[in-house]
Amino acid sequence: MRLTLRASAKINLDLRIGGRRPDGYHDLQTVFQTLDLHDTVVVQSSRGAFTLDGDPALMPLDQTNLIWHAAEALWRASGKSGDPRGARVRVTKRIPSRAGLGGGSSDAAAALVGLSHVWRLHTTLQALLPVAATLGSDVPFFLMGGTALGLGRGERLYPLVNRPRRHVVVVLPDFGVSTPDAYRWLAKDRAADPASWTPDSADWTLHPASARNDLEAAVERRHPAIAAIRRRLAEAGAELARMSGSGSAVFGLFSAELTARRAAARLAGDGHRVVLTRTRPRSLVETRRLI
Ligand code: C5P
Questions:
Q1: CA 227/CA 3 separation, integer angstroms
Q2: Which atom of ligand 1 is nearest to the CA of 154?
Q3: Which segments in the chain show pLDDT lower than 70?
Q4: Residue nearest to atom 12 of ligand 1 (CA)
Q5: Is 188 a catalytic residue?
Q6: Which atom of ligand 1 sits closest to the CA of residue 153?
Q7: Is 270 a catalytic residue?
Q8: pLDDT of residue 204
Q9: What are residue 270's phi and psi, to 5 degrees?
């Protein structure tokens, strides 16, 4: 058996970070949105030990890769002992790493879906959600896709109605940001200036004027290039220009394709790596998950 799965990238249309919890994570409220930009994950039955293939320049292929964790977690959850066997996973990577686009998490979610078929576990998406949550805060979202509200660590999900599709210009600075660093910087800035933190509920109308990313200011203080890219995208006509997740990617939303194309060309002209893509509604995510 051989399955080819789409592992979509995501952006956070809105991201509000609450207090630090006893387990070290932060309570948050976020609106996730999948993009057309995706990795391709092929899951195939095989003999012998589980293996992972891909371009080693783009992702680690050893046990530190989240796909390995996914295979081990699903193997154990299905009551099997020893190391996972009987499947190989191959990833064609397009989603940049350390960008806040969820590439590693999305690959892991796709691997869970593929492996549950190949291992004939017949696990429902609902039953995969808690396994996904053990892998990372935003892995469960990639089992759902489309637009969704994430609460708790981001793993408590509520699907939201599809919004009109937008053209998205994703700009990739020549540095990445580690997620734990971004949260540490935010905690440090809040401790130094408590008045800077106004706890607030996310705005589900997602009006561009009120959409926010609470990690953005903390990351921009350490990486001013991100603020400069946001300004360039706004000048180029973006309805909303925000950092995604913990960065370093910045996205601009556009309703007109021509404006998006011109903005992408302008940012590429500045010397940035740019991806022009679109938001991806849930119906397409569900029906085209298996490519
Ligand atoms: O869950 P995940 O492995 O993606 O989280 C990576 C890191 O990001 C955590 O170890 C933590 O430092 C930070 N984080 C957080 N609160 C969240 C999500 C992530 O503090 N809700």
A1: 41
A2: 21
A3: 200-208, 284-291
A4: 180
A5: no
A6: 21
A7: no
A8: 57
A9: -75, -10
